[in-house]
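wait is this the right file?? whatever heres the structure
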């Protein structure tokens, strides 16, 4: 299908704490849009404050999809995301609305927009049990021996991704370079970023605000409801350090300082991922007028 005839979608992406959710709401209100979240933690029910999930008030009446759709005790994969996001886009288009993908999980966005053919390798439960006992550093070394190319691009601190990559590499020899199927959509990519110092400050302020409104209590409640500390650590970032704090392994002060460092490392990984995609139009959040003009020119065909 000619790119002109494919359904148009907007993709708003970028590092954490740059104001993506707020921009998506503003664009949705102006151009009759509905938002599909592309965030690997916000799909889970109950992971609200720790994942920085948008509140109902902040949604300003704009429909949001793929939030709170999975049980945090069970893993939600990129394949699950792609399937559900495609269905949401179809529904949004049927209503004559504009689909807006918004989030910071680069692999989710790429899988959806570029229609990646994802490897069909079933979970290897006995292998997973063995690998579960290893640290991320040990898992990384195993992957490096099996598939150096995949080891180069993987998020080293994410045990779930490392285990899955090892599983695929053991099953089919290496993690395949993912092929793109014929594209389903015509996307406009908008990337949000900020200068380092401003973003570091925002991350620190945002973290303290989240602690103040009950991030620790949220994690404690999740654990009381049966979410194991092991699973929390797997979920990464905030939940990893909240689990360590609740287990008494670190103090609140250590949790905050570790999190600030870890979130900054996460920002750097997000930037590395997104910088490879030359389709992205980069802006600072203050450049709303320029962003709106770009969206208008894309959405409303010139006569």
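ok assuming it is, sequence goes like this
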């Amino acid at each position: 299908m000619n790119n002109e005839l494919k359904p148009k979608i907007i993709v708003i992406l970028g590092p954490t704490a740059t104001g993506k959710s707020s921009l998506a709401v503003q664009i949705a209100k102006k151009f009759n849009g509905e938002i599909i979240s592309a965030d690997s933690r916000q799909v889970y029910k109950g992971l609200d404050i720790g994942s920085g999930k948008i509140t109902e008030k902040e949604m300003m009446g704009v429909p949001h999809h793929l939030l709170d759709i999975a049980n945090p005790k069970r893993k939600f994969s990129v394949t699950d995301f792609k399937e559900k996001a495609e269905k949401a886009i179809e529904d949004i288009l049927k209503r004559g609305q504009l689909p807006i993908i918004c989030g910071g999980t680069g692999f989710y966005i790429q899988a959806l927009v570029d229609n990646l053919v994802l490897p069909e390798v079933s979970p290897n439960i006995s292998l997973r049990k063995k690998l579960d006992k290893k640290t991320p550093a040990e898992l990384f070394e195993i992957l490096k021996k099996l598939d150096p190319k995949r080891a180069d691009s993987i998020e080293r601190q994410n045990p779930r991704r490392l285990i899955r990559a090892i599983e695929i590499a053991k099953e089919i020899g290496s993690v395949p370079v993912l092929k793109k199927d014929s594209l389903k959509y015509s996307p406009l990519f908008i990337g949000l970023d900020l200068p380092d110092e401003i973003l570091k400050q925002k991350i620190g302020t945002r973290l303290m605000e989240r602690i103040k409104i009950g991030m620790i209590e949220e994690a404690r409640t999740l654990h009381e409801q049966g979410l194991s500390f092991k699973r929390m650590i797997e979920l990464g970032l905030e939940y990893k350090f909240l689990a360590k704090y609740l287990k008494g392994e670190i103090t609140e002060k250590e949790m905050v300082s570790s999190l600030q460092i870890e979130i900054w490392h996460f920002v750097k990984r997000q930037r590395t991922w997104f910088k490879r995609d030359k389709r992205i139009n980069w802006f600072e959040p203050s450049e709303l007028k320029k962003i709106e003009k770009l969206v208008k020119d894309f959405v409303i065909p010139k006569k």
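The mean pLDDT is 93. so i think its the right one actually
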